[in-house]
Amino acid sequence: MNGALWDPVGSSPSLLSVVRAGAVGAAPLPDDPPPAANGLRWAPGALGGVLSQHAAPMSVPDAITDQVVTVLERHRDGRLDRDELERLVATLATGPVAAGDRVARAVIGWVRTEPDPGRTPATAAAMADLARWLIDTGTDRHAAGVGMALAGLLTGLAGRQAEIEVLGRHEALAQDAVRALRGLGPDAVRALRGLGPDAVEPLWELARQHTGWGRIHAVEALAPFAGQPDLRRWLVTRGFRNHVHLGYTVPLVVRAADVAGLLREVDPDTAERPLLDGARDIALSVLEPGGPAGSVDDLPETAEILLWWLDSVTAAGPERMSLDDVDAAAGLVPELDELDPDLGFDDERREAVGRACRRILTDPAVRGLVRAAIEDGTALNGSLQAAELLGIDPLPALLQALGAAPEQGWLWYQASRAVPDGAADRAGELLAAARALLPADAVSTDRRAVVGPVPGLHQGVIFLLQHLVSRFPGIGWPWLEPLLRSPLVGARAQALTAVTTWPRAGWPVEAVGALAAARDRETDDRLRARFEAVLG
């Protein structure tokens, strides 16, 4: 490689050097796109991950693929100049997310049309030079991604396997790194499998390093090798877990690792905790409605997995039972009739699930476990369904926790849900605490855009509205009235929705005037129409 020709473009640090220096996981990168006008931005790797799961492969502008092919062709023929490389870098920076895969496929198409097979070694050498340069010096994720994709086409990854593994430590680059390490297409996957465990380890290491989209991509790449005993057990106990959604990995792991078959080999009486937790959470994930994996009706082994877990935890006794086990059993009881036959639940298995859950929930030691966990606060961030079924009131412990940490929005969520329908005195008790601990205008003075969970006091007010105020007509007007003045259209809409759940006779005397004033101020046409409909 000619030194001057292949010098870095510009003076910015390469992504390789940035990641190597410690910018791993979701750490900021120099080429992070700016946030949208509302202040939101995609989490690292999330856009590429969502598109890979829910959209057709993205098209890449011909200008990008044509320019890559032109650079390769001219370099192979000894006619490449510096200006062309600089133009290529500028063009790649404008490309869509995860463009490397599509560029690599375009390069494959170009190679296959080469009429002179004798030029193949020179073509491969040109590809290796460009791949190494983009990986080593690329200052944005598009250039580095194309470099990794080109390396993934070549034997030995153009001598850049170690560098690809480094880049893959960052969530924003993990998808391209995984694709390079596994190769492109089924032929590459078959070749990789033939190399044995040594070829799997780099992908497995990436999977272990990540918990987000990087984990999902790596687990997908590892699926063909799930028969390897150590990898199989890791996939079932830890590998399926990710903080995006288990629905992206669980169906794949159930099939590839043959989870039911693995559990048949384990005595339920001696099963270790990681395997118990894995079996439970895998089965519950399949049963969860509306997950991103779509229909999982072709997983009839789900019933066998769930029953193995129930048999194991009941055989072990309450001394080995976790709060998560109890919560899971409590959550299954009201859903017994909904257990899908397509997931392996015939009448006999459905009854067996019910018997096992009731055995767990009627054990006096389990009741003591739940009560102690509620009182010391360790169970407050989990499901409170077990407490409800066992007749244990968590509200006193929640109020105590709120007094110490009112900025913890999830505590307001749990407390709001812990108030039973019709228990107006308990609702009043919680609202009295809220008036003492939360500013009534926490939402009306907060201009942050709200998409999904938001932190702190803002979140506490939202949860009170959604899960408490709307259930008790006339209670909570001090929270609703400030929301009607919020700069957030969603907050104003939530306030109106809460009011409309109350009978008109239960409105405070000042409600009509406040709603009319809110209608007159309203700038959103659809919401103004809702105000008018409510006021009549």
UniProtKB/TrEMBL annotation:
Domain of life: Bacteria
Organism: Nakamurella leprariae
Designated name of the protein: Uncharacterized protein
